[in-house]
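Support request, priority: normal
Reporter: lab tech (M.K.)
Component: structure prediction queue

Hi team, I submitted a job for Ferrochelatase from Perilla frutescens var. hirtella yesterday, and the status page still shows it as pending. I've pasted the exact input below so you can check whether something in the sequence is tripping the parser. The sequence length should be 466 residues. Please let me know if I need to resubmit or if it's stuck on your end.
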Amino acid sequence: MEAATSSRILPQINFNQNSTLLRSEAKLISACLNSSQNSISNSKRNLVARGLSMSPLVQEGFVGRTFCSAGVCTYPAGAIESHSDIAEERIGVILLNLGGPDTLHDVQPFLFNLFADPDIIRLPRLFGFLQRPLAQLISVLRAPKSKEGYAAIGGGSPLRKITDEQASAIKMALQAKEVPANVYVAMRYWHPFTEEAVHQIKRDRITKLVVLPLYPQYSISTTGSSIRVLRDMFMNDAYLSRVPVAIIQSWYQREGYIKSMSDLIEKELQTFPKPEEAMIFFSAHGVPVSYVENAGDPYKDQMEDCIFLIMQELKSRGIFNDHTLAYQSRVGPVQWLKPYTDEVLIELGKQGVKSLLAVPVSFVSEHIETLEEIDMEYRELALESGVVHWGRVPALNCTSSFITDMADAVIEALPSAMAISTPNATTEEAENDLLGYGIKLAFGSILAFILLLFPRVISAFKNYIV
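Reply from support: The job had stalled in the queue. We restarted it manually and it finished. Here are the results:
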């Protein structure tokens, strides 16, 4: 068995923690990065992606490992389960993704679900009751602009279709490795919701589950948010709390992923008149700076490490193109990770860059941020800024090497699955929660009603967030 000699195994997240998954989990993963990369000096790390160019890090033995909440975890060869053990289990794999509106009619409710997530808009605990009224207001204001974007790519997001195809491909890859498994799709903000996937898992009587986020790098706002929802559901269900679960939190450093990305970049470079002159432009989804600085989100560090590993692989193939990293998709008045993609494109034009290959490094599936934001908005901006030759690396989608690597990651994670214990909530606590929820809901509804009655307030708020 191919996986029997591997050491890239992840232990599970301990769902039975007293602290919340958000800040504590991010700090644990950040600590994991620090402990596993003590050979990387802080001065060299700080050179990565600070502007329009990047300098290499010194990293040893980094490719192929997978991070978990306790550090870089390895298992001896004998720890991998045998095929006979696997055959006795009903194995499930749940793919976590963002989700997207299927039609233009779905855009506003999709945006509501997005902004109602406390991991997306992080309000102080005291004002948590405003989350849903605020989400309603923002979604109504942003829906018209978002509808234009989805209309430009065909009237809806292709994310569900592509993720379903990835699920089928991973299931087939596991079957080819003699590991039969059911693969489920769990979208965070649109159908099929996480709740729908979990309901099907219960119906299928799954006895062991691997959670595989389709986000290469961990962030509180993506993987962290989806895991929080799963955690709450599992801890409050008698059946699910007994199902052994292993969670793959990040996999950007896996050799299969790095090689798959490098293959796509190498292929697209050949479409340029002078491939060696094209700058490789990595564009990653941004997050607010406060997530990194205040909540311990490891996303920025993992993204920079990911770019380093891809460039190291390309250099091993004789590709030494210049490259840079920037962050896209910022919204609202808060500061997001810099440099911003649009600003960097303008600056590159001023510097005389004529050939640019865009690489959407946060995404493994085509969706609005690749098809509309990069292919349309950023392409137009780049050409206006002086870039002559523009190209874009496609998302991995169902690339065979990528699918095979995801199947390997699942197999390697299986031995680490552990059951979840269910906390006991007292009747008094439950009653207090219901009373508090009722008060907050009433107050929030009144506030939302007042806001929606005053056009001047809405207009001012719209100018503030758009």
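The beta strands are 67-68, 71-72, 91-97, 181-187, 208-213, 245-247, 279-285, 323-328, 355-360, 389-392. Residues 1-79, 423-431, 455-466 have pLDDT under 50 and may be disordered. Let us know if anything else looks off. Ticket resolved.
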